[in-house]
Design a protein that fits this description.
123 residues; mainly beta; 5-stranded antiparallel β-sheet; two-stranded antiparallel sheet; 8% helix; globular
Amino acid sequence: MFIKVRKNCGIYMEHNGLEQGHLVPVTSNFLINLNQVAEVSFYTIKESKTRYDLEHHAVTVPPHTRVIHLQMSYLFGSYKETVGDKKGRLVDRCYYKLYFMPEEMGQYEAIRSHIEGLVINQD
């Protein structure tokens, strides 16, 4: 099952393919395969945060920005380093964070309700 993220001036994305602390605006539609997502969390940013765009210009993420954090399954990760005496390796799983700015109209609720509709024990 896929969710579609539509291009919108009120949505930004962060993922571990970017430098840490960088955001990019969503400038084209794309799909995320929910069958490849291991964990999902929803939260709201309580205080202003500073992130950077690809040209290293400061982007202020205001309070009340809503975030959907999608942590992908282990199949979508890379081996980061060896732990101990080669007894194991640390896996860096891919993730996507979608930032829905306060002025964004509706996609956050649509995506969240769709994901929550797939949850069995919603109590």
